[in-house]
Here is the input.
Amino acid sequence: MAKHPTKTAANIAIETRRRKVAALMLSGVVNQTDLAAAVGVSRPTIVNDVAAIRDIWRQETAHDVGVYKARAILRIQALIAAIWPMAMQGDMKAVGRLVELMAREAKIIGYDSAEKVDHHVNIRIAAQQVAEQLGLDVADVLAEANRILESQVTA
Here is the structure.
């Protein structure tokens, strides 16, 4: 079984430098030439440091967003539990608040993401409407629509 590599003096130096670079970036220093001069390294080294720092920040942000969502859901569920008895007794204000909380929870979780639409159903409905308006047979309208679509594909 392989052992985890221990931090070398070089790795510790890189981490220390990147902490300084990150602090400078957070204080408003964004020009890479200025960053390189401030910590006494070359611009290519700063380019690598900035990329590594931004990657770490991206990972932390993704984790933080997940933690925030989990906390928000727990808070909403606690509020729902507190309001539920009043809503079940017919308190319309509580019912309204309950619906709002449940909608917010659904949005955070992603229940309200876009629904898949069956375009075949939409085309059939449109064909029925056209057929009714023009006094045509629905099957004939659909056949003509298919013929047009097939000619577009082969063109």
About this structure: Residues 119-154 form one domain. Residues 128 and 134 are 10 Å apart (CA to CA). The chain has two domains: 9-109, 119-154. The radius of gyration is 30 Å.
